[in-house]
Amino acid sequence: MWAKQIEYFNNYHCLVPDLPGHGKSPCTDFSIQNCAEEILNLILTKAQGKKVILIGFSLGAQVAMKILSMNPDVVDYSIINSALVRPAPFVNKMIQPAIRLTYGLTKNRTFSKLQAKQLYIGEEMFETYYKETSNMDMNLLIQILEENMSFRIPTDFSKSTSKILITVGEKEKKMMRKSLLDIVDNTIHCKGVIIPNVGHGVSLAQPELFNKLVEVWIHDRELPYGLTLVR
Which of 4-25 are b and which e, b meaning 16 or more Cβ less than 10 Å from the residue's Cβ? Predict the structure, then answer.
């Protein structure tokens, strides 16, 4: 899903790890805490004194926030895209029964195509998306969704010294935009922007704009015109 970014930032050392339970990284027990620990170890092993730029989207954005709270000084620049930080207890209770009822749909190509369209996943990536979602274990999917829907801003997130950009799409659900405000209010090293005319997945929906956004952020330049600045 980060192919357009890897192509654009080809003069950087880009690391794109699968989260446990995704892609070619199978697991049976998922937690955001464990993901953050593994990726933080990867960063510490590979960085070796270089500047570190951390970018996460959705579930990956929650993992990125956890990393920033665990080691406040390791990341120089970070971009947190569409991170949900407002737990919904009622929705969380419904995840297990809902997934048990609908899990079979993950193997239905028509249903998967509808999901892929919502996530801005194009034809060139669909087969990979379909294969990986079809192969995901039902209980693991429930764990992932429960972690995602119960995530809160980590206790030590405000201690991060990283220069943090928080983004959300204008067409995303209200709780995502409220989450952006919560995060921005939580730390002084943070700026938030709302990206117009896009839902959940700007890096896929508008890769040229997203790449430009990343580029100006990590070089301390002015943000692209047309974004709604939160702070």
Answer: ebeebbeeeeeeeeebbbbeee
pLDDT score, position 186: 86
- Tell me the whole-structure pTM to 2 decimals: 0.95
Residues 115-144 have pLDDT tens digits of 999 999 999 999 999 998 888 899 999 999
Q: Is 166 exposed, middle or buried (0-12, 13-18, 19+ CB in 10 A)?
A: buried
Q: 3-state class of 173 per DSSP?
A: coil
CA distances from 141 to 62, 67, 97, 128, 163 (A): 16, 22, 12, 17, 32
pLDDT the model gives residue 78: 98
DSSP state of 19: P
The distance from CA 11 to its chain's CA centroid, rounded to whole angstroms, is: 23
Q: HEC profile for 64-105?
A: HHHHHHHCCCCCCEEEEECCCCCCCHHHHHHHHHHHHHHHHH
Q: Strand, coil or helix: what is 113?
A: helix
CA atoms within 13 A on the CB side of 196: 6
Sign of the C-alpha dihedral, residues 169, 173, 174, 175? negative
